[in-house]
Amino acid sequence: MVPLGRLEEQICELAGHLAAATCRFLVLLGDFDMREGWVAWDMPSCAAWLSWKCQLSSATAREHVRVARAIRGLPVIRGEFAAGRLSYAKVRALTRIATADNEAGLAEIAAPMTANQLERFARAHRTVSAVDDAAARVRRRLTYRMEGDGSLSVTLHLPPLQGAVLLRALRAASNDLEHPYEREGIAADGVSVRTSRAQAPTSSSLADALVAVAESFLAGKVATAANPDVYQVIVHAGADVLDGGTANVRDGARRAGAGAVGGVSAETPAGAGPAAPGLCHVEDGPAVSVTTAQMIACESTLSWMWHDRDGTLLDVGRRRRRPTAALRRAVRERDTCRCRFPGCESRRVDLHHIQYWRNGGRTSLKNLISLCKYHHMLVHDRGYIITASPGGVFTFTRPDGRAIPASPALPGTDGTIIGCHDAEITAETIVPAWYGERLDLDYAIATFFANAANREHAEAAA
Predict the structure, then answer these.
(1) I want to staple 43 with a disulfide (CB 3.0 to 4.6 A). Which of 49, 209, 276, 308 is the partner?
(2) Is the whole-model pTM more than 0.85?
C-alpha cells in the first residue's frame, strides 16, 4: 500500500501536470478558434465544436473557449499557468479582470490565494473598478441605414441604465445570464470575451438576440391584433421560388408572413412585377435569397395570390396554418427543446419539415424536427438529408453520403500527460502559500490598486 504522505504528493503533482496540460490544451484551442477550424464541421461556434468533439457540456465548452481567447493576450498569466503554478480555476477568475497592463500584479497577488478566495477578489475588483463615468452619459439616439446589399445597419446610443436594461434583455434572449459582466461582450460564436473601452463589442449572437426580442414583441401583437398583417413581416416569393419551378400553378406570387429575414441576395430581378415566378423580396424592402424564403416557409403562415401576366390580382387562396400549439409541444417534448443537429445544444429552435412541405411533406410529428436558425439555414442551403428512425432518432447525412455521428469517439491516447507539456512539476508546484488565514478582501483590493498606482508613478518618473 502506498504511504499516505506519498499518496498526497502524487495527487498534488498530478494536479500540477493537469494545470500545465490544460494550459497547453487551451493554447491549442485558441489557435484552432482563431483559424476557425470548427467551420469545416458545420458548427455554429468553436464552443459547439468543442462540446461535440471533446464531450464537454455546453457551458463548460463556452467557458473554455472564453479562457482560451483571453490568455492569448495575457503572457504573464499564461506563463504561470503553463508552469503549473496557477490552476485552471484561478486562471478562469483572473481572465475576467485581467488586462495587459495589470496582469503581472494580478498574477502576483493570486499566487498565495486559494481559488475560492481569488473568485471573491475578482468579483470585488469588478465592483470597485466599474466607475459611473458621467462623460459616458449620452442622449438617446438610434439611427439606421439600408446598405447597398439590402442589409440594415443600426447605430444606438443609450444612457448607462437604459443600456443595461437592453443588454439584460439581449442576454436573456441569447440564454447568457450566468455571467452578467459589465464590460464584456459576446463573440461571434456566443462566448463572452472581455473588451476594452476603445473596443466596442460586436456580436452576431447579440444581433440574433435583438432579432428574437423584436420577433417576440411582434408575435404578441399579432396574437391580439384585429389586423395581424400590420405587425407581420411579409415576404413575397414567386411560385418558382417555393416550388423549385416544378409546381403546376398559375402565374402568381405567394406571400409568406414570417419573422425577421436574413440572407440578402439579388434573386429578384429589377422591375419584376407581382406575377414574376422568380419573385423573392421583403414587402417594400430588399431582395432575399431563395434559401431564406424556403427556410421561413417551413413554419410561417402562407397564403397565395394569383395574378395575371400584367400583375392584376385574380384570386386569393386559402391560408395554410403552421403547426398547432399541441404539435409544437409534442415536438419540443421529443427533442427536449434543443436543436437535433449533431453537436448542437441550442434552445432557440425552428420547426423544420424533414420532407419539405412544398414537396408533399405533412405537418406531423414524425415529419417535424427542431433545428436552430444556423442549422436550419444550413440544411436548406447545403442539402443535408435527414432520416427519421423509430424512437425519435434522426440521422444527418451530408450531400456526399457521409453520415454525421451524434457523438464522435475520443481519439486514442499517445504517451502520458507529462509528454503534453514541458513544465518542471513537483508535488509543491501548484500548492499555494496559504496557511488557513482568512482573506481580508478590503485590504487585498486596496493593496492591489495601491501597487498598480505605485508602478504607474515609477514608470512616469523613469
Answers:
(1) 49
(2) no
